[in-house]
Write a structure and sequence with these properties.
Elements: H1 12-34, H2 39-44, E1 49-55, H3 59-75, E2 79-85, H4 89-98, E3 105-109, H5 113-118, H6 126-132, H7 141-146, E4 148-149, E5 152-153, E6 155-168, H8 169-174, H9 186-196, E7 198-199, E8 205-210, E9 231-232, E10 235-236, H10 241-257, H11 259-267, E11 284-290, H12 293-300, E12 307-310, E13 324-332, H13 340-350, H14 353-362, H15 374-378, H16 385-392, E14 397-398, H17 406-422, H18 427-462
Parallel strand pairs: 1-2, 1-3, 8-11, 13-14
Antiparallel strand pairs: 3-13, 4-5, 6-11, 6-12, 6-13, 7-8, 9-10
Helix pairs in contact: 3-14, 10-11, 10-17, 17-18
Amino acid sequence: MSCAPRINQLSNNELFWLRFCFSIFILLIPLLVGCGSDSHAERERQGRVVLKYWDKWNGFEAEAMRGVVEDFNKSQDRIWVDFNSVSQIDRRLMLATAGGVPPDIAGVWGYSVPVYAENNALMPLDELAREKGIRAGDYIPAYWTLCNHVGHLWGLPSTPTTIALVYNKKLFREAGLDPDRPPQTIAELEEYNAKLTRRGADGRIERIGFLPEEPGWWNALWGYWWGADLVDGSKITARAPENTAAYEWLQTYPDRFGADKLVSFRDGFGNFASPQNPFFTGRVAMVLQGVWIFNFIKNYAPSDFEWGVAPFPSSGSGARDAVTLAECDMLVIPSGAKHPREAFEFIAYVNSQPVMERLCRGQLKFSPLAVCSDEFLDSHPHPHIREFLALAKSPNAKGYPRTAIWTSYEADMRNAVSRIWGGSATAGEALDDVQARQQKNLDRRIERWKRMEPALQKLWSKQ
């Protein structure tokens, strides 16, 4: 049985372009690998095992990891890590692995692990982790869960995130609201929303308290705050009562404010990464955002911008406290990597407490480790790092569904929200369509996995 990952469900035209892009990519590999090297680095790495490390970061996040790589290279004389920032890493990593020329280490998003694993594009790390004494108890449970799939460990975290209600304290005060008491339930969120919203004499929205479509990055997940899941084993649960209730709430926005008025209001928003971000300009008072928001506030918001962080409120019907999405960037070893043992030595180095804390401080995030030092928290530049960390440790911290069809499922849910928002379907109708399509999709994937699993599990046990 071939060990190469399977790229299935592609048309002949797509396969042609995939092969074409791969051939171009192979030609570019020497340029990618050589980028950033200098004569001093070349001398330093002589006689060492050289590891190719690809990650998706750029800007200050890439620089934080580059510093970790440089320290690792200085800490010993056996291994040299070449760090390269690579765009479109999901596609490039799959192509390189399929072509037998993968990097030794790759940084991927946690939600992509199931599809990589089920396509045999990653090396299981169970035995290497045992050799290093790395275990589940070393990590916040939500992040260890993200690293595992179909009974194996596929990666270790680099930097994590959670999402929370982020709100403008100045606008709270102007509306007569206590800036130190954010809304606790969805009903209370809407009470605050009504007090914060302002309309012009012509009825146009000038400011809104909360708008689910701003930024709209988690439109597939609203059911989480109603106590819902999106997959239950072999069943799609898009139409579960809790999910239906969540999207019926979403539907109240175009019903209450007018779909055309909401579209007109949003058309006036500036770019997210700019001073014209509607949250920074005061046009939206509350947003659902991740730990990374501090970097954008620091760079683009007014100097006197006052903001608070709290768990996003849950539904009053069976509400659960501190619900959040917990995700992380992850370091993996692709199938066919030339130096897996040396690659894992670097991954384990990153996951040591001092190094992980340095990386996460540099990226303005918290640590995914179960224990972090007081100095890390006390000296952290992020003013709300403790709130985001507390959410990660909540029993109601949930990752994206651990299924290889998630990319398709999420796109379908986003389309459903667009239909609800535009008035072309009710919440129930839109979710019925998602339920039917994605159940067929999941059934196909399960049948495919049943055929592949015995041979893959045998192969992985040998690795």
